């Protein structure tokens, strides 16, 4: 269990480095053997130095998506490397493909993507994660506004 808490603290440090904790409403879902942690937020909340380090855009109309996959059934819930793809859909059913980049920091693994939105727009996310014979889909929605 100590390993899980250590990775959780690393995850908080990474996410905290990206944006203020109050701005990030991290959520998680159990998908098969995985515990998937995810959040989406306006990219203006990214610290400039972190945006530059990870080649992310900061804009009032760009959302940033952050996903981490953990092995829920293993001791310490180790981070999992997965194949990940997906898209965001706006209220008019227009799709934007998401291009994820993998970030590895020590034992932590994150997948980050960005997509555009219009003011007060709710985006629906459809993310497929694969690892060997395991494949699961994460679906969620989030309202974005310019700030």
Your description of this structure?
A hairpin with a 2-residue loop joins strand 1 (27-31) and strand 2 (34-42). The chain is globular, with a radius of gyration of 15 Å. A 5-stranded antiparallel sheet has the order 1-2-3-7-6, covered by helices on one side. The chain has a 4-stranded antiparallel sheet with strand order 5-4-8-9, with no helix packed on it. The protein starts with a helix and ends with a strand. The protein is α+β, with helices and mostly antiparallel strands. The chain is built from 2 helices and 9 strands.
Describe, in short, the structure shown.
Helix content is about 15%, strand content about 50%.
Describe the secondary-structure layout.
Layout: H1 2-18, E1 27-31, E2 34-42, H2 48-53, E3 62-71, E4 83-89, E5 95-98, E6 101-105, E7 108-116, E8 121-131, E9 134-144
Antiparallel strand pairs: 1-2, 2-3, 3-7, 4-5, 4-8, 6-7, 8-9
User: What assembly state would you assign to the polypeptide chains in this entry?
Assistant: single chain
User: Mean pLDDT, nearest integer?
Assistant: 87
Distance N to C terminus: 39 Å
The poorly predicted ranges are 1-23
Largest sheet: 5 strands, antiparallel
| H-E string | HEEHEEEEEEE
Proportion in β-strands? over 45%
**Shape from CA axes?**
globular
Order of neighbouring strands in the sheet with most strands: 1-2-3-7-6
Strand-pairing-aware structural class: alpha+beta
What is the tally of helical segments?
2
Helical content (DSSP H or I, runs of 4+): 10-25%
Radius of gyration: 15 Å
Total beta-strand segments: 9
């Amino acid at each position: 269990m100590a390993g899980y808490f250590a990775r959780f603290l690393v995850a908080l440090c990474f996410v905290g480095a990206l944006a203020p904790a109050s701005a990030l409403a991290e959520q998680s879902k159990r998908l098969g053997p995985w515990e998937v942690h995810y959040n989406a937020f306006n990219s203006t909340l990214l610290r400039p130095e972190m945006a530059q380090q990870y080649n992310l855009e900061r804009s009032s109309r760009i959302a940033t998506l952050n996903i981490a996959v953990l092995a829920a059934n293993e001791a310490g819930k180790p981070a999992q490397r997965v194949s990940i793809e997906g898209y965001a859909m706006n209220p008019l059913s227009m799709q934007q493909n998401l291009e994820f980049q993998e970030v590895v920091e020590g034992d932590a693994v994150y997948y980050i993507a960005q997509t555009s939105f219009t003011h007060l727009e709710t985006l629906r996310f459809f993310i497929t994660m694969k690892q060997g014979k395991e494949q699961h889909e994460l679906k969620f929605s989030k309202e974005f506004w310019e700030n």
